[in-house]
Specification:
This protein is α+β, with helices and mostly antiparallel strands. The strands form twelve sheets. The protein has a six-stranded mixed beta sheet, sandwiched between helices. It has a six-stranded mixed beta sheet with strand order 26-29-30-34-38-37, with no helix packed on it. α28 packs parallel to α30 and α46 crosses α49.
Length: 1482
């Protein structure tokens, strides 16, 4: 409603900078051929995120079907059905994309985000409904609250925006005027040409730069001043290159030297600080990139942060100016922050930390100022950043600014395109200008009232804290302090608490009145709350009669909480009162269930792990520390009593007691209480194990205590028992009904990991107490060898426990090897490094350190942790040498079950050293695995099937060879999926299965590429859906999509593979993808539509830099017309194959003409069409290049100059030479008229061809088999001819075929040894271009009993060129009654007349208005039927209408069409009656 009135009153909302970015993203995603697409809006509370998202929906409401979800408690399955139902509203041609806004708070303890669960369910529902449209079904705009004051990420791409191009062009004029040799400025010219020139890394600075050391160093203070560094010499050996506030000041710079410096930089040299000095004083030619303002905005935002260390990651393409941009930011902020750049890579983080602290504290406590540190050291930067976070995370008392802002700059060859827009509580310069202009309009319209528009004014004031602080007047502070216990102050404090910790939350007006009544106050809300009304907002919402009350802005709520604290009203007191006065007294436990959990239980996500407690609890802990109070335990205990069935409150209490108070007795008590409340929840049980583990750590430190070993063992046994019980419950959870909402989405591994941590602590404690324990714990000695250690007789009770530890750690080590090697939490999230580190350290203590003198092969493998399949796989993730791998290979020969490890060791070694003399030939490895396959192929491990796929995946030269004595790979994939279900599904549920190998371009074992060989940025491109991805060393596999499933086409074999992104699998057709293998099976990565791979021209390269998009249909008459609105880029039309390249926005319209329109031109006798005749018109903009599709095969007989482009113009026709690519012809002339690709007649030319199979609706199996060129118009003509038939999708010919040659068709029995009993008409067909009514083979088989083959024979080559297997599942012999009726209508000549008469009878029953409605439906089109031309129906009588329908749709189609339209006209009784009469004619 707000947006409606905003438009009506002509005072639109101010659009934040992210608005246009979101509009562009939606427009781009509308063209993407994915079923479900997601995009993100990350925003800070109070920055206007929800408003911005709703603005976007309002903008698209007339173009897309827009909807909003605000409650994550909805049933996701039902929600998915409703969303898909919204998409399907109307007829087929009316279906339209749903733009779905998710503006929700994630559920408590949700392991999987709500969006991911929704996406999975949407894809399932889309597939269930068999939706095959070529537009997205759903675009999800996911709004996520984000704390940008902690970290953010930016990407600088290697292309310029229009604004940047404009600024660069202006600079170019200055350069040419100033420098004679400007053509040598390679760095500048590379940017000028939009980074199209290769990046030259060889340019070095040759001008002697100088860095004169000033007599004194100046650094900035927080208030904008400058102070002198006292001890200059302390910074001379620093690892930091400090940018002093007075850098180069008052230093004379010779103009000639400045010019030389500038020349060297423009040539591509590395930037120096002196270059930026020239920028300020000599007008140096730096071009300001668009990202500059965003970086400044982020740094200003992080200066206000509550965190002591914050991070900005800047990723950039090599040579795109990323380092220069970062240095420019530091230079411009040198008088505001203490800026420095890390001089060199160092592993000693202590040195860096000490230098940062020294720089931060320079000038004394009052002058502490934030350090802005630039890390430009490659991938090492992330590690240094993480360590600095860890070392400096705690802010010193008295400091209210961050100590350190890290700007980590990293160069990446490939940067995935972002689908995220960010909205921050810091305005960009252009936003400030917009608000300034808009403020005047608001003030003029609302006068003095506009001063109370606090939410708007805070944004207009750039979210300044001092502005917000000034909104709280002294009178209000005095009132609150004097009336701390009054009803209105209490309610105001509750609202401030809720709005501060749950921004946007509110209380209902009726609830406020109930609260007043409970406090013996019966006045109206406005009267009671008079002192506080200026800071409150009262509003109504749709579908709710009550009013809502909240603080005007989250920043005001924060300031109010601070004000109340100054009035001795702590957060703990306010929380306690809220729980008592609102939740308990008013009996609102159910209403505030989620709110109480949000403020008291839910923990914020940090850089590496979640915070220890909720933000409110952390703040109450800090208050308790300052005021020596115990509000935290009081609040949690009261909440636990209120929600006496909820296990999370006693769990939080237990965590508080053992983490903060080190009171393990109380912690144990509350942990057990939590278990009693929810005994089946394994995650709740984990807390008891953690209590015992931390108690053990405390006990270990008390080495002087009597009976030390016994006490350590006692606590270790308690902890291991708790963790084992947790593991049992975790196993039980996964075995329960997966549809149970209480079942966790992921398997709980904390019990296993906690157990490992405990026995690691135990080993260290006992062995440090007495060295004799080490050999005993490793199983080398018996209990008697401990001697004095076992004088305490009570220790003997732990003998069995201790003896089993080594075997236990081996078992759990293997679990974690599988768990960490085969999976990770999600695509984006990596496993915390401490998991593998702690497991390895524990294994090393119990197993490896006792085997230093190992001699046996098994012992050597255990030492190298290479005695298991996942252990071997992990070797390449480590820095392991070729020599070590060769030693492992030799040891693996006789020490791996079923020789699996030996085979894998060969593959691993080949990845490290392809020429190693120890490698066994692939053929011999195949023979080994084949023996096991023949012995038992169904019930083996996933690892076994992985090796089968890796070793036997066909190479190019094997595709047409027979496959005797080889595993059936389709079978192997099926068995592998089953094996995964048996072995790993429970433990890896909902985790991301990582690719273990990819299919590369090499031969034999060298084509198996381990994931460690694929660089991380390329892995991101592979897994995050960039359709243009090109990975140099990987092989793209040709495949096909059928019924939402993906198949790899390997010769005659079709092997089903799992799509990495199910949403990218659309409709039917050929695709290509990179093939990876995870522990569940083969996976298709980076799927993109493609022409089927023709083996004849496989060596002819084709560019992949094309975005495949769905055009708009602007005319649906006999000539289908399309439109594309394009931004800068390279595009291919999905409908026609037309390719367009443009450097700026362009709009074009085009259609496919019939070649018949030029067939009577004499010159055409010498040419044959080999592609569509396209009529293209440019509506606006300019094209860079146009590529017309063709179906010529460039791998066949040489075409040379035989191909031409036909131009049809008013003045006549012309034939232009063209440049042929594999599937397209590039136009050299961009003037547009109907154009098409021709080839001169008389030359032998190969066509790319399609073989299309349709099953008719006859009572016996009748197939229509078409052999046609790969032309979209011809394919469309076939689809029109077979509109009532069922398509049987099969791969077409793998090689191109010679045009105008003859072909015959055979049917072969299952064994291919003899022909089937079938009838095929005609006996031969000629391959030629015939876009209207293409010919086909009709194949008639009377009741086939089993599968059979179709084989296409070339009369020219005298051999088969195509054969496919037709399975019984491909066709249906049981024809429905309606199918029989349709056959009867069309085949019974005698029955045609009654049907015509029946249809005419029902049309005569329609009055004139109804008849016009009937005609309207015919001309507008009905699902599955073509529109009837208006000109034929305008003056048509009823009998003419019947004739038109039969001519267009034949008799059976006319009958069905009439029934359908009567139903749409709500004449259901007539429709039913007509249906019955039609059935009676059969």
């Amino acid at each position: 409603m707000n947006f409606y009135w905003s438009e009506k009153e002509a005072t639109p909302f101010v659009t934040r900078n992210g608005y246009n970015n979101l509009i562009q993203l939606v427009n781009k995603n509308k063209r993407k051929l994915w079923s479900v697409i997601d995009m993100h809006l990350l925003y800070q509370p109070g920055s206007g995120g929800s408003t911005l998202a709703m603005q976007v929906l309002w903008k698209f409401r007339k173009e897309l079907r827009c909807a909003r979800v605000t409650d994550s408690a909805l049933d996701v399955t039902e929600l998915s059905k409703q969303v898909v139902k919204l998409f399907l509203v109307g007829d087929d041609q009316d279906q339209n994309t749903v733009l779905l806004l998710l503006d929700i708070k994630e559920k408590m303890n949700e392991d999987q985000p709500f969006k991911r669960i929704l996406q999975d369910n949407l894809i399932k529902e889309i597939n269930r409904q068999n939706i095959k449209v070529n537009i997205p079904v759903v675009i999800i705009l996911n709004c996520i609250i984000m704390d940008f004051t902690r970290s953010d990420e930016f990407s600088l791409e290697a292309n310029l925006s229009e604004d940047e191009e404009k600024r660069l062009s202006e600079k170019h004029n200055e350069v040419t005027e100033k420098h004679e040799g400007h053509e040598k400025f390679r760095g500048f010219n590379r940017m000028l040409r939009n980074f199209s020139l290769p990046h030259d890394r060889s340019v070095l600075k040759c001008v002697e730069t100088f860095t004169p050391s000033p007599q004194f160093f100046m650094i900035p203070t927080p208030n904008g001043g400058k102070i002198q560094v006292k001890k200059k010499e302390t910074y001379t050996k620093s690892c930091l290159d400090i940018l002093w506030a007075n850098m180069y000041e008052d230093v004379p710079l010779d103009r000639l030297s400045a010019k030389d410096l500038e020349c060297e930089f423009l040539k591509g040299g590395q930037p120096q600080w002196i270059d930026f000095y020239c920028l300020e004083h000599e007008g140096s030619l730096f071009v300001k990139r668009d990202l500059y303002d965003s970086l400044i905005q982020q740094i200003n935002l992080q200066q206000k942060s509550q965190w002591n260390v914050t991070t900005i990651n800047l990723f950039h393409h090599p040579g795109s100016g990323g380092s220069t941009l970062a240095m420019r930011v530091l230079w411009d902020l040198r008088k505001q922050l203490r800026c420095a750049k890390l001089n060199y890579k160092t592993s000693d983080i202590v040195i860096i930390k000490d230098d940062i602290i020294r720089l931060f504290k320079e000038g004394g406590e009052k002058n502490h100022n934030t350090v802005l540190l630039l890390l430009d050291v490659g991938e090492e930067g992330k590690k240094i950043s993480h360590l600095l976070h860890k070392e400096l995370q705690k802010r010193s008392a008295g400091d209210n600014i961050p100590m350190l802002i890290i700007m980590n700059v990293e160069s990446k060859t490939t940067i995935p395109k972002s689908t995220t827009v960010k909205l921050k509580m810091e305005l960009l310069p252009e936003e400030k200008t917009l608000f300034k202009e808009h403020k005047a309009v608001i003030k003029e319209k609302h006068g003095e009232d506009s001063e109370k528009f606090y939410g708007y004014n805070i944004m207009h004031g750039n979210f300044r804290k001092d502005f917000v602080k000034n909104l709280i007047k002294n009178d209000l502070k005095c009132y609150a302090k004097a009336n701390k216990t009054s009803t209105n102050t209490k309610l105001f404090s509750f609202l401030a608490l809720l709005n501060s910790y749950i921004p946007g939350s509110s209380l209902l007006g009726n609830l406020c009145q109930e609260f007043f009544a409970s406090q013996q106050s019966h006045e109206k809300f406005e009267e009671v709350m008079t002192p506080f009304m200026d800071l409150l907002v009262i509003y109504t919402a749709e579908h709710c009669e009550d009013r809502f009350v909240r603080i005007a802005h989250p920043m005001i709520a924060d300031a109010c909480i601070q004000m109340l604290f100054a009035c001795s009203m702590t957060r703990g007191d306010i929380t306690h009162r809220f729980l008592y006065s609102i939740v308990k007294v008013l009996n609102k436990q159910a209403d505030f269930l989620h709110i109480c959990k949000d403020i008291l239980i839910t923990r914020q996500k940090g850089e590496q792990e979640n915070d220890k407690f909720s933000k409110l609890i952390l703040d109450i802990i800090e208050e308790d520390h300052q005021m020596n109070s115990a509000n935290c335990t009081s609040v949690l205990q009261f909440a636990s009593k209120l929600y006496y069935k909820d296990a999370y409150y006693p769990q939080a209490l237990a965590r508080f007691y053992y983490i903060k108070l080190r009171d393990y007795t109380k912690a144990e008590e509350f942990a057990k209480c939590a278990i009693q409340r929810d005994p089946k929840n394994s995650f709740i049980r984990d807390t008891l194990g953690q209590v015992y583990k931390n108690r053990l750590r405390k006990t270990v430190k008390d080495k002087a205590s009597p009976n030390y070993a016994r006490r350590v063992l006692e606590h270790a046994v308690s902890a291991t028992k708790a963790f084992k019980e947790e593991l049992e419950k975790a196993e039980e959870e996964q075995e329960s009904d997966i549809r149970n909402s209480n079942v966790p989405n992921t398997f709980n591994i904390r019990g296993i990991f906690g157990y490992i941590q405990v026995i690691k602590i135990l080993f260290d404690a006992l062995t440090q107490h007495s060295s004799q324990w080490a050999e005993f714990l490793r199983g080398k000695t018996s209990v008697t060898s401990l001697g004095s250690s076992f004088k305490d007789q009570k220790l003997k009770r732990y003998n069995n426990f201790l003896k089993n530890l080594k075997d236990e750690i081996k078992e759990k080590k293997h679990f974690f090897q599988c768990y960490l090697t085969y999976s990770k939490p999600s695509i984006e999230k990596q496993e915390p490094p401490y998991f593998r580190r702690d497991v390895d350290e524990c294994y090393r203590r119990y197993v490896i350190q006792g085997e230093q003198a190992a001699q046996s092969e098994q012992q050597i493998l255990e030492l190298k942790q290479a005695n298991t399949f996942p252990g071997l796989l992990h070797l390449l993730d480590q820095d392991i040498s070729k020599t070590e791998l060769e030693k492992i290979l030799r040891c693996s020969v006789n020490n791996a079950d079923d020789n699996q490890n030996y085979i894998l060791a060969n593959i691993i070694l080949c990845n490290k050293s392809p020429t190693s003399q120890f490698l066994m030939p692939k053929k011999e490895l195949q023979n080994i695995i084949m023996r096991y396959w023949q012995a038992e192929k169904r019930y083996r491990s996933p690892e076994f099937y992985l090796l089968v796929l890796l070793l036997f995946w066909p190479e190019e030269d094997e595709l047409n060879q027979g496959t005797p004595n080889r595993p059936n790979l389709a079978e192997s994939v099926k068995y592998m999926h089953q094996a995964f279900e048996r072995t790993y599904k429970k433990h890896l549920r909902s985790r991301y299965l990582v690719p273990l190998f990819f299919l590369g371009k090499g031969e034999n074992l060298q084509r198996l590429v381990h994931r460690s060989k694929v660089e991380q940025h390329l892995m991101d491109v592979l897994t995050k859906g960039d359709e243009k991805a090109e990975i140099q060393d990987l092989h793209r596999v040709q495949g096909e999509v059928r019924d939402h499933r993906v198949f790899a086409l390997r010769g005659a074999n079709q092997i089903e593979v799992t799509p990495h992104h199910p949403a990218s699998v659309r409709g039917q057709g050929f695709v290509s993808f990179y093939l990876g293998f995870n522990i569940k099976g083969p996976v298709a990565y980076n799927i993109r539509p493609s022409h089927r791979q023709c083996r004849t021209c496989v060596s002819v390269r084709d560019s992949s830099e094309w975005d495949l998009i769905e055009p708009s249909v602007i005319s649906n008459d006999a000539q289908m017309k399309y439109r594309m609105d394009l931004a800068s880029g390279c595009y291919e039309c999905r409908r026609t194959g037309l390719r367009i390249e443009c450097s700026h926005d362009v709009q074009i319209e085009y259609l496919i003409r019939d070649w018949e329109c030029v067939s009577d031109i004499p010159e055409m006798e010498h040419f044959t069409p080999c592609g569509p005749l396209m009529d293209i018109a440019i509506i606006s903009g300019k094209l860079t290049a146009v590529y017309l599709p063709h179906f010529l095969c460039l791998g066949g007989p040489p075409i040379k100059d035989a191909a031409r482009i036909l131009h049809v113009e008013d003045s006549g026709i012309s034939f232009e030479k063209c440049k042929l690519t594999r599937f397209h012809a590039k136009l050299l002339d961009h003037t547009f008229s109907p154009k098409g690709v021709l080839v001169r007649q008389g030359l032998p030319v190969n066509y790319h061809c399609e073989a299309l199979i349709y099953q008719t609706v006859k009572s016996h199996l009748t197939l229509h088999v078409y052999l046609i060129p790969s032309d979209k118009k011809m394919i469309g003509a076939v689809e029109e001819n077979e509109i009532d038939s069922k398509a049987i999708s099969k791969p077409g010919p793998e090689c191109s075929l010679l045009m105008k040659t003859w072909f015959s068709l055979k049917t072969l029995e299952k064994t291919k040894k003899s022909e089937c009993n079938s009838e095929i008409i005609p006996m031969q067909l000629q391959l030629k271009y015939k876009p209207i009514k293409p010919n086909f083979f009709e194949v008639f088989i009377d009741s086939p009993k089993e599968d059979f083959y179709l084989q296409l024979m070339s009369q020219h080559l005298k051999r088969g060129v195509w054969d496919v297997k037709i399975r019984q599942a491909d066709y249906s012999q049981s024809i429905s009654s309606m199918d029989v009726r349709r056959e009867s209508y069309s085949s019974n000549a005698v029955g045609n007349r009654p049907v015509r008469e029946i249809l005419l009878e029902y049309l005569e029953n329609l009055d004139s208005r109804e008849l016009n409605d009937f005609k309207w439906h015919l001309t507008e089109g009905v699902a599955a039927f073509k529109k009837l031309p208006k000109c034929k129906l305008e003056k048509a009588e009823r009998c003419d209408i019947v004739k038109c329908m039969i001519d267009q749709c034949e008799v059976d189609g006319a009958a069905k069409l009439t029934v359908t339209i009567l139903g749409k006209m709500q004449k259901n009784s007539d429709a039913k009656e007509l249906q019955e009469k039609l059935e009676a004619t059969v």
